[in-house]
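Field log, afternoon session.

UNIT: design team B
ACTIVITY: writing a sequence onto a fixed backbone
BACKBONE:
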C-alpha cells in the first residue's frame, strides 16, 4: 500500500478522533462509542459520502481533489501546519497555500560556522548534524565533542534525543521537548515519507524507543520554531539559549541552527 496514502488516512483518523463532537454541533451521550467524531460525521461536515471518506482513511487508492481536501481541512479545523501536511500526504497543491518568503543564505554554510561565536550547527534532511562549531561541541558535551570515525554516519539529533541515555537529563523537560521534536520532524519530512533512508530511520527509532514510537503514532505535526532551550550541562550546570533556525533558499532541506545565550529562569 502506498506510504503516503497510509499516512493520509492515519492522519485524518487522528484529527477526527481529537475533535469533540459537541464543538461541531453533534450530540454526545452514553451510546457514543467512538472517540471524537464518527466517520459519517466527518464526512457530513466535509460534504462527501461516508463510504468515500472511509476509503480515504483506509488508505485505498482513491484520488482526493484539492476541493475535498480544502473542505476536510476546514471542517476538521486544521491549523496551517496540519493543512499543509494534509495536502502533502495527498500529493495535491493547496490552492490557498501562502507563497513562502525568500531568505538570503551564505554560499558556504559549513565555513560560516567557524565565524559564529555562539553554538551553531548545520542540520540535514533527516536531522543529521552535518557540521558544527567549537561552541556547539562544548555545549553538547558527550556527543558533538566526540571524535568521528572516518566513514561513520554523522551524528543525528533524533538518535541523540531518544537513544542516548544522558540526553534525558541533559535536555530540560525531556518528555515535552522529545514530543515536540517528533512533531516537528514529521512536519519537516512530510514530502519525503517514501524515501527509504527516512523509512529506515523511523523504523530504527520506533524499535529502539517506546517513547518515539508512541509520539510518532500520535501524528502531531508542528513547524520548527525558535524559543528558549534549557540544558543541564555536565560542567556549567543549568544553561539557557534562544534557538534560531535559518533555511538557505537554494537548499531548503538544510537548517542552520544558532543558539544565543539567554538568562536562566
Amino acid at each position: 500500500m502506498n506510504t503516503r496514502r497510509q499516512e493520509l488516512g492515519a492522519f485524518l483518523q487522528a484529527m477526527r478522533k481529537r475533535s469533540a463532537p459537541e464543538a461541531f454541533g453533534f450530540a454526545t451521550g452514553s451510546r457514543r462509542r467512538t472517540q471524537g467524531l464518527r466517520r459519517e460525521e466527518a464526512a457530513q461536515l466535509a460534504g462527501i459520502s461516508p463510504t468515500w471518506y472511509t476509503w480515504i482513511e483506509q488508505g485505498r487508492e482513491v484520488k482526493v481533489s484539492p476541493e475535498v481536501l480544502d473542505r476536510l481541512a476546514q471542517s476538521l479545523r486544521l491549523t496551517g501546519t496540519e493543512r499543509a501536511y494534509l495536502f502533502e500526504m495527498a500529493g495535491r497543491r493547496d490552492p490557498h497555500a501562502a507563497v513562502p518568503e525568500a531568505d538570503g543564505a551564505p554560499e558556504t554554510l559549513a565555513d560560516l560556522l567557524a565565524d559564529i561565536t555562539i553554538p551553531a550547527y548545520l542540520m540535514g534532511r533527516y536531522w543529521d548534524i552535518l557540521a558544527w562549531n567549537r561552541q556547539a561541541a562544548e555545549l553538547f558535551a558527550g556527543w558533538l565533542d566526540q571524535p568521528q570515525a572516518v566513514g561513520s554516519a554523522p551524528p543525528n539529533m533524533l538518535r541523540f534525543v531518544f537513544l542516548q541515555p544522558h540526553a534525558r537529563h541533559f535536555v530540560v523537560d525531556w518528555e515535552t521537548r522529545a514530543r515536540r521534536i517528533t512533531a516537528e520532524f514529521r512536519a519537516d519530512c512530510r514530502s519525503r515519507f517514501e524515501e527509504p533512508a527516512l523509512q529506515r530511520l523511523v523504523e530504527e527509532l520506533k524499535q529502539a524507543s517506546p517513547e518515539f514510537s508512541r509520539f510518532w503514532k500520535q501524528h502531531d505535526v508542528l513547524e520548527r520554531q525558535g524559543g528558549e532551550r534549557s540544558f543541564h550541562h555536565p560542567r556549567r550546570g543549568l544553561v539557557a539559549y534562544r534557538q534560531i533556525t535559518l533555511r538557505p533558499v537554494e537548499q531548503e532541506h538544510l537548517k542552520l541552527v544558532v543558539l544565543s545565550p539567554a538568562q536562566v529562569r
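LOG NOTE: The first strand starts at residue 120 and ends at 123.
NEXT ACTIVITY: expression trials, pending approval
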